[in-house]
Amino acid sequence: MTADVTSTATPNLAVISQAVAAYRGEGGKLPKAALLVDALLQAEKVAKQQRLAYNFESLLGKWRLCFATGTRKVRQRGGIVLGKGIYLPKFAAAYISFSADLADNSGRGEIGNQVQVGLVSLQLTGPAKYLGKKNLLAFDFTQMQISLFDRTVYKGQIRSSKAQGEDFHNQAIAKQAFFAFFMMTENAIAARGRGGGLALWIRET
């Protein structure tokens, strides 16, 4: 089943929408973290049950991180459990961005991860590839840029081996960092990271 950008098929979409609107300053209160975690987990469950598939084009643009959960290992059970989750403070903006060569139509593109605190900005960029049937986006950060007062003060490779970027698209997903997306709307996207945590982003541009 293929879902368009507005389809999430989850009854708790109202909780997620409330969080997005409140974080944007459009009115209302932020839902409690526990409620939002439950809503995200239900959205993830529905996406798996209905085998929803999203296209790469729905991810393109710039998104601001709104909410994220950590994880912690449980030694007795040999697994992990979700943390309580927190809303990201407004003074420390974190963004993720995706771009692609749409003419290529291969699911290949570039990812950007930017953290901005005051007038200081740190941005990581690198290659990305999207597996539409699984809603998985694998990525690798290969470049770093630091800016101060909108002026670049440092820019360079994170890794010295140029072959890393060239081999990225041939590597198995199991060896790469990735996001497993389970919700995409015009205003928000949500995913589970390889480490097990959940994240919710709202559209910036």
Q: How many strand units?
A: 13
Largest sheet: number of strands, sense, barrel closure: 8 strands, antiparallel, barrel
Strand order of the largest sheet: 1-5-6-7-8-11-12-13
Q: Beta-strand level of the residues, as a percent range?
A: 35-45%
Termini distance? Answer: 28 Å
Helix content: 10-25%
* Radius of gyration, CA atoms, in whole angstroms: 17 Å
- Average per-residue pLDDT, rounded, comes to 86
Stretches where pLDDT falls below 50 for ≥5 residues?
Answer: 1-11
Number of helices: 3
Name the CATH architecture.
Answer: Beta Barrel
- CATH class placement: Mainly Beta
Number of domains: 1
Give an overview of the whole structure.
- With 205 residues, the protein is α+β, with helices and mostly antiparallel strands.
- It has one domain (13-203): Lipocalin (Beta Barrel).
- The chain has helices at residues 13-24, 33-49, 163-167; strands spanning 61-68, 71-74, 79-82, 86-87, 92-100, 108-117, 120-131, 136-139, 143-148, 151-157, 177-184, 188-193, 198-203.
- The strands form 2 sheets. An 8-stranded antiparallel beta barrel has the order 1-5-6-7-8-11-12-13.
- Strand 6 (108-117) and strand 7 (120-131) form a beta hairpin.
- Helix 1 packs across helix 2 (33-49).
Summarize the structure.
This protein is of the alpha+beta class and 205 residues long. It has a single domain (13-203), classed as Beta Barrel (Lipocalin).
Keywords:
single chain; 205 residues; alpha+beta; Lipocalin; eight-stranded antiparallel β-barrel; two-stranded antiparallel sheet; 3 helices; 13 strands; globular; disordered N terminus
